[in-house]
């Protein structure tokens, strides 16, 4: 029989060491007793960078930010009981957003389950369909053949978190007491793990030629959303769009709006100009080619939904069916960059010059209207995109923050990376995700959040010490996005939907050691941001007159909607 005191640590070390050998380089730990062998193995492993976060929910979103920045799986470790349940919101986001996480939950052994033992909850398949795979380990066993099996399983877990669709994998790790030996514990010898190679998916030559023929010469439209992380995609897409002479409607999270690649065909003001009555007849495409997730803009979604009978071609290589409008005529299982290169190499005939020129004229008009009397959020976005240095990362919260970024960011040749939690589009965990990005070296890092999103994850600020991160909080007195929805007319609107917090965020900054400034306009925001970007953790609260902002948003949309 195995001896827990002797076997637990080598068992945990073998698991962690094999994950590290499979390319995992970071771990986030929340303190607890039952998870001690796993935590020690992470903390003492020379190949792992480790962070300790007390709050499991914040820890999980912090790991999510690390994984987004590194594009590699990150290990999460927690104790048994209710602890792993606090991971659930981040697990949902990782699932829907395609972010790799490896969830190691310590657990009571089988004989302590279902009998009233303390902290013995049912952790098996805790996350249901939101994980790519679930594995329940046996209790620790130091036999050589069992350790060899564990190393092989760890390599499989790392692979399952990456391919074919990146996401979370849950490993439940029951551990018997005593958890630690009294004396020194031997480290099992290193051993190789299976190396994994991944394919570059392309269309068969005949299919590629048929697609090129279908697109050639047509008044086409390319639409790009979040989720394409291939660094070769922007240049490959720009080359294809130039050859086809067709416009690219690029969501900010597609990370096409800013960078050195050609943006001659790229448009960012479509949320405004597509509001005009009759625009679908004027700018009616012969085909639509779509990459990534559905864009943020509901105006663009409505435009695409209205194109009945127009071929809409979706490109996806992860195994999902990204068609919430149910308008897809074909799903192309290919890597986005590979498909762009395939079609461009076939030199398809360009659309008539008037086609792209019509979209460019609409883009210019919308940009001019946006500059006339912009809402304060638009000015904040403008200052951010102008002042952030090349290579910076802008994390954006949901609700109105991402919509204002979408509507007002514009485009530029300076490389900026834009990130958000748009898998489930929640307001939870945004602070922690941003700090995970900063901890991974995505500096300078600026997070643009609404006041409710910031409040929802203030515990996450505990991770800000020692990091270069700037939080820009748009405080419009609650859930300002509901001012644009039907709930605004309800008698209970302010109490149940707007939910003004009436909090002084300077206290949160002081509690967690962030420098704090409160500003009320772009003139004050620019020097505040310039100072904050010099280094350290900062909170800049931008006070927004909600009703004035709503009026200016609506005036812009109305002007854009007029012929």
Residue share in helix: 25-40%
The strand count comes to: 18
End-to-end separation: 81 Å
CATH structural architecture of the largest domain: 3-Layer(aba) Sandwich
**Structural class per helix/strand content?**
alpha/beta
Rg, nearest Å: 25 Å
Give the number of domains: 3
CATH homologous superfamily label of the largest domain: Thiamin diphosphate (ThDP)-binding fold, Pyr/PP domains
The geometry reads as globular
The low-pLDDT segments are none
Oligomer: single chain
Strand line-up in the sheet with most strands? 2-1-3-4-6-5
Question: Mean of the pLDDT scores?
Answer: 93
β-strand percent reads: 15-25%
CATH class category label of the largest domain: Alpha Beta
Describe this structure in words.
There is one protein chain. By secondary structure, this protein is of the alpha/beta class. The protein folds into 3 domains: 4-174, Thiamin diphosphate (ThDP)-binding fold, Pyr/PP domains (Rossmann fold); 205-368, TPP-binding domain (Rossmann fold); 373-561, Thiamin diphosphate (ThDP)-binding fold, Pyr/PP domains (Rossmann fold, 3-Layer(aba) Sandwich). It is built from 20 helices and 18 strands. The strands form 3 sheets. A 6-stranded parallel β-sheet has the order 2-1-3-4-6-5, sandwiched between helices. α1 (4-21) packs parallel to α5. The longest helix has 19 residues, at 144-162. The chain is globular and about 80 Å long. The mean pLDDT is 93.
């Amino acid at each position: 029989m195995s001896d827990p005191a002797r076997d637990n640590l080598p068992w945990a070390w073998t698991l962690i060491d094999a994950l590290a050998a499979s390319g995992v380089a970071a771990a986030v730990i929340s303190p607890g007793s039952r998870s001690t062998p796993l935590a020690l193995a992470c903390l003492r492993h020379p190949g792992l960078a480790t962070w300790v976060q007390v709050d499991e929910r914040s820890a999980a979103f912090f790991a999510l930010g690390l994984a987004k920045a590194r594009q590699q799986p990150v290990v999460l470790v927690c104790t048994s009981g209710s602890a792993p349940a606090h991971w659930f919101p981040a697990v949902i986001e990782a699932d829907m957003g395609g972010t790799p996480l490896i969830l190691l939950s310590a657990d009571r052994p089988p004989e302590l389950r279902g009998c009233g033992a303390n902290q013995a909850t049912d952790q098996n398949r805790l996350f249901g369909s939101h994980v790519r795979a679930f594995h329940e380990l046996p209790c620790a066993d130091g036999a050589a053949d069992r350790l060899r099996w564990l190393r092989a399983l760890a390599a499989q877990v790392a692979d399952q978190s990456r391919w074919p669709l990146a996401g979370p994998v849950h490993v439940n790790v029951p551990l018997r007491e005593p958890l630690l030996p009294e004396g020194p514990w031997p480290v099992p010898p290193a051993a190789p793990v299976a190396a994994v190679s991944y394919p570059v998916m392309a269309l068969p030559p005949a299919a590629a030629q048929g697609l090129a023929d279908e697109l050639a010469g047509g008044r086409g439209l390319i639409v790009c959303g979040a989720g394409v992380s291939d660094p070769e995609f922007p240049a490959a897409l720009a080359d294809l769009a130039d050859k086809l002479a067709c416009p690219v409607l690029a969501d900010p999270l597609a990370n096409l709006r800013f960078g050195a690649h050609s943006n001659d065909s790229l448009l960012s003001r479509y949320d405004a100009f597509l509001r005009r009555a009759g625009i679908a007849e004027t700018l009616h495409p012969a085909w639509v080619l779509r990459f990534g997730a559905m864009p943020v803009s509901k105006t663009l979604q409505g435009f695409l939904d209205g194109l009945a009978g127009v071929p809409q071609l979706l490109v996806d290589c992860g195994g999902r069916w990204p068609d919430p409008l149910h308008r897809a005529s074909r799903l192309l299982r290919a890597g986005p960059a590979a498909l762009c290169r395939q079609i461009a190499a076939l030199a398809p005939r360009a659309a008539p010059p008037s086609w792209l020129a019509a979209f460019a004229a609409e883009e210019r008009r919308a940009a001019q209207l946006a500059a006339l009397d912009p809402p304060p959020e638009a000015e904040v976005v403008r200052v951010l995109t102008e002042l952030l240095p090349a290579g910076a990362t802008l994390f954006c919260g949901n609700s109105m923050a991402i919509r204002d970024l979408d509507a007002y960011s514009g485009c530029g040749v300076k490389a900026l990376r834009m990130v958000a939690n748009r898998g489930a589009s929640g307001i939870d965990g945004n602070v922690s995700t941003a700090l995970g990005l900063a901890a991974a070296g995505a500096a300078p890092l600026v997070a643009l959040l609404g006041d409710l999103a910031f409040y929802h994850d203030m515990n996450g600020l505990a991770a800000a010490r020692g990091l270069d991160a700037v939080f820009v909080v748009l405080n419009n007195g609650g859930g300002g996005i509901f001012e644009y929805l039907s709930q605004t007319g309800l008698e209970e609107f302010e109490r149940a939907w707007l939910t003004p917090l009436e909090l002084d965020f300077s206290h949160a900054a002081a509690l967690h050691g962030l420098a704090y400034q409160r500003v009320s306009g772009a003139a004050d925001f620019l020097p505040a941001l310039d100072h904050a970007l010099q280094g350290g953790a900062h909170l800049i609260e931008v006070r927004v007159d909600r009703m004035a902002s709503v009026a200016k948003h609506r005036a812009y949309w109305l002007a854009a909607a007029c012929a």
